[in-house]
Amino acid sequence: MSDTRAESTAIVLVGAGGLGREVLNYVLEAIRPSPHMRVKGFLDDNLSALRPYRCEFPILGSILDYAIEPQDRFVMAIGDCVKRAELIRKMEARSARFITIIHPTAYVASNATVGNGCIVGPFCAIGSDARVGDHVLLTWYSSLAHDTISHSFAVLSPYSTANGSAILDEGVFLGTHAVINPMIHVGAWSKVASGSVVYRDVPPNCLALGNPAKALPMLPTSR
């Protein structure tokens, strides 16, 4: 993982919902070899989000009101692509620094590139010469094959895959078991529904669903 330094680094997870609690375990398992990194807690606008659960780490405050400290490094654990991008941009404008978390069971090819603030979860794969932009989230068993390009803020749900030389533009969301066939281009802020198989390029701001997937226009949202 990135940003390993001699001094102590305090990791703050943004979002204390289900994804946040899941990502917490990714983080703990990824930083276990490093004595210089520790989890500090969560940020969430719902200050009681963790109340029903057993969690040793507290909610430190609301997301945009939190006073950022020099040793803080952030992990964005919110899965909605639009909300994710909005919060990251606002936090970076306040000098927040994000780190990349790669789970120890993930495979990342030595000649692949992975941007800042990414999360690569358990049993994920990033293939040869793949290029992954900033703040991309790969959850359980999702994959980006050889020569794929995933632009910033994309989210891959469990078991979703983009096959060889496919392109995911900014903010693309792949549902569980979604399949993007080789050399297919999915436009910015489009969503591919769970279980769908995409054989043709998907324009921006569309919902692609079915097998073969058909692209339906969505109303654009503010970003």
Can you give a write-up of this model?
- The protein is of the alpha/beta class.
- The chain is built from 2 helices and 23 strands.
- The radius of gyration is 17 Å and the shape is globular.
- It starts with 8 loop residues before the first strand and ends in a 6-residue tail after the last strand.
What order do the helices and strands come in, and which of them pair?
Elements: E1 9-14, H1 18-31, E2 37-43, E3 59-61, E4 72-76, H2 81-93, E5 101-102, E6 107-108, E7 113-114, E8 119-120, E9 125-126, E10 131-132, E11 137-138, E12 143-144, E13 149-150, E14 155-156, E15 161-162, E16 167-168, E17 173-174, E18 179-180, E19 185-186, E20 191-192, E21 197-198, E22 206-210, E23 213-217
Parallel strand pairs: 1-2, 1-4, 2-3, 5-8, 6-9, 7-10, 8-11, 9-12, 10-13, 11-14, 12-15, 13-16, 14-17, 15-18, 16-19, 17-20, 18-21, 20-22
Antiparallel strand pairs: 22-23
Integer-rounded radius of gyration: 17 Å
Compute the average pLDDT.
94
Give the overall form: globular
Major beta sheet, specifics? 8 strands, mixed
Stretches where pLDDT is under 50 for at least 5 consecutive residues are 1-6
Short key terms for the protein model shown above:
223 residues, alpha/beta, 8-stranded mixed sheet, 6-stranded parallel sheet, globular, disordered N terminus
Provide a quick synopsis of the model.
With 223 residues, the protein is an alpha/beta fold. Helix content is 12%, strand content 29%.
